[in-house]
Amino acid sequence: MTSVDTAMHQSWLCQLAREYDDICYQYSIQLRPPILTISMHRKQMGSWEPANRTLTLSHFLIANHPWATTLQVLKHEVAHQICSEIHLQNDVGHGPLFRKACTRIGLDPVFHRPSADLAEGLRTMLQGSTATQRGRHIIDKARKLMALGSSDNEHEAALAVRRATELLARHQLDFATLAATADMEHRTINTGRQTLPAHRRTICALLEACFSVRVICASLYDPHANVSHRTIEVLGRVEQVAIAEHCYHFLENRLQTLWNTNRSAICGKGGNSRVAKKSYFLGLLTGFRQTLESAPVHTQAAHGRQPASDLPASSEQQALGTFVASRFPRLRTMRRQGGSFHNGAFQQAVAAGRELSLHPPVRDGSGTDQRLLP
């Protein structure tokens, strides 16, 4: 390795140590920190060695994949450590005890698999396509069998439950995994910035208020730049998360476009453009939110305001709360003080914001969300 690689690895190890401590804190796990190392293995992406208490991640995992993927593999190895140091069992493989440990630390179900340790398996999981479709097919089939389990025919019900259990066991899934993947999704929007300006925080509040999603402001490490960027985490039903993400990008685009068009008229000569821009953005968002909240009920449903399932609203919120808690068990609310304000820019923008129209995203032939930006 070169001196540059060595310095980079030191930075990565420091960040991994912080991430490890955060996992233990977030999920209230009492573990002794392991020896963290970075290997140059191209095939083995991660490993836990209980004999010498070493947790290893591959240089090529960190260098070639998003940091979010690195965190999933890190959690996978922490789950192995939980099995050996809390449950005192070193040879459990990737069976029920291991999957229980994965669920305990909020690891995405796809990373419960043995292939999460290996480069080839990791590529297959991240590509989605065949593996994801196959997984969805298995889960859908198990759900249908479990639905038959409530049949009035006692023999038919028992047979359906047994078949569902056998199906999940054969594919190394369990009922906890089934519940965790019940149409819930967690998407990360990376802002690419180290700070979160007022208008982005306001967009987050708007998404939560006007769509059935939960929005959390967080951060994500960039291993190449050795800095952390602010992120917007959107959680909820698949359809609602897609619409909320579409709305976020729509607003980011329209706010900047409208500001570029009206800047000279608002600021004039010698005006404080920074304050005026912030106030203009907040005005646009205020007007747009008023339009969304005053829309007819059927329009709100088309844009994701109503639950996308047959469950009552209270059950939807409870399911979402459980899903969020599995990802962010120790959330905290932070209050921020306001700053300077340009009332003229704000008032002018409110009227313009009421005229903004959000069209729902559509899908192309491959099933990919396509954003429509009017």
A few lines on this structure:
The chain has 14 helices and eight strands. The protein has 374 residues and is of the alpha+beta class. The termini are far apart.
User: What is the total domain count?
Assistant: 3
Distance between the termini: 50 Å
- Helix/strand class: alpha+beta
Write out the strand line-up for the largest beta sheet, numbering strands in chain order.
1-3-2
- Provide the β-strand percentage band: 5-15%
Taking the sheet with the most strands, its summary is: 3 strands, mixed
Helix percentage: 55-70%
Oligomer: single chain
> What is the H-and-E element order?
HEEEHHHHHHHEHEEHHHHHEE
Low-confidence stretches: 370-374
Average pLDDT across residues?
A: 83
Q: What's the β-strand tally?
A: 8
Tally of helical segments? 14
Q: Whole-number radius of gyration? A: 24 Å
Task: Characterise the protein shown here.
The strands form 3 sheets. The chain has a 3-stranded mixed sheet. It has a 3-stranded antiparallel sheet with strand order 4-6-5, with helices on both faces. Strands 7-8 form a two-stranded antiparallel ribbon. The chain has helices spanning 3-26, 59-64, 67-85, 96-104, 119-127, 129-148, 154-170, 175-180, 198-210, 238-267, 273-293, 297-302, 313-327, 343-354, and strands at 35-39, 46-49, 54-58, 184-190, 213-222, 227-237, 362-363, 369-370. Helices cover 55% and strands 12% of the residues. It is built from 14 helices and 8 strands. It has 3 domains: 3-126, Metalloproteases ("zincins"), catalytic domain (Zincin-like), CATH 3.30.2010.10; 133-180; 239-370, no CATH class. Strand 7 (362-363) and strand 8 form a beta hairpin. With 374 residues, it is α+β, with helices and mostly antiparallel strands.
